[in-house]
Amino acid sequence: MPRVRAIRREDSESRTDLELVDEIRAGDESAFAILYDRYFQRIYNFAYTRLRNRADAEEAAQDTFTAVFRSIEAFRGTASLLSWVYGIARNTVNNQIRRARAHEQRVERAQSEIGTPGLGVDDYSPEETLSYQRCAHAVEQALTSVTSWQAEVFVLRHFENLPIQEIADRMDRSNDAVRSSLYRVKRLVVDALESEGSGAD
Amino acid sequence: MMTEDAMLDFTIEELREFLQADLLDVPVDPRFKERLRRRLWELVQGQLRHGEPGDDA
């Protein structure tokens, strides 16, 4: 039977962070729920303010809380939990912003390569050129509609030709997560191509 | 892993930014919040199990 207690308001407000951490270590799910509720909105707001995007804010909140609860065993209370959690959130958001910037640079580079006449556009027939441009547009559309890390995975795989394992290592994700992300972006590209195709008919 | 000391290294500006964000009313998808809560609790439970190899099982 799960150890879930009804959370009374006074109960959630009266316990200190450190007490809650101790109770979580003892396996108390209600203490975990109180601590999570105490910090969730603050971290989400902070991430959203910095990233201005719901999907990215959710990713940052998820990464922050995962890091917090993964190391909760090591929390000794020499700093306040707030400053500790905030520090993790700040680092997570900053890393995400850095990754997004790197991704933007890669996409810009890829886009300029796609549109470079020096690639031999003159060697293709008008139909082939049109098809190529449609494909480039579909990729561009797909990359702007997914989270920054998913777009970066796609660019690393298809523009930089890196193996799955290396992408997973670089992005600190599992091979399965990378594969599933690639599948999702590819699906979006295919959908975009199909909708363009049907629109052109 | 990030140490508590390392986490203390932030400026007043950063703290102000964090506290200002705290005052905003940013809508959250409740399904996301609940899904994350469940995943995190599973993570904590997994760690507690690993931390207690001599369980009474």
Name some characteristics of this structure.
heterodimer; A: 201 residues; mainly alpha; B: 57 residues; 0% strand; flat
Write a compact overview of the structure shown.
By secondary structure, chain A is mostly helical. Chain A has helices at 9-14, 17-25, 29-51, 54-70, 81-114, 126-144, 148-158, 164-171, 175-200.
Tally of alpha and pi helices of chain A: 9
Helix proportion range of chain A: over 70%
User: Largest sheet of chain A, described in full?
Assistant: none
N/C terminus separation of chain B: 30 Å
Largest interface: A-B, 43 and 32 residues
Strand content of chain A: under 5%
Global Rg of chain B? 18 Å
Strand-residue proportion of chain B = under 5%
Biggest sheet architecture of chain B: none
User: What is the molecular shape of chain A?
Assistant: elongated
User: What is the mean pLDDT of chain A?
Assistant: 79
Radius of gyration of chain A: 23 Å
Global morphology of chain B: flat
The assembly state of the depicted protein chains is: heterodimer
Ends of chain A: how far apart?
Answer: 60 Å
How many strand units of chain B? 0
How many beta-strand elements of chain A?
A: 0
Helix proportion of residues of chain B, in percent?
Answer: 55-70%
Continuous helix count of chain B:
3
What pattern of helices and strands is seen along the backbone of chain A?
HHHHHHHHH
How much is the average pLDDT of chain B? 77
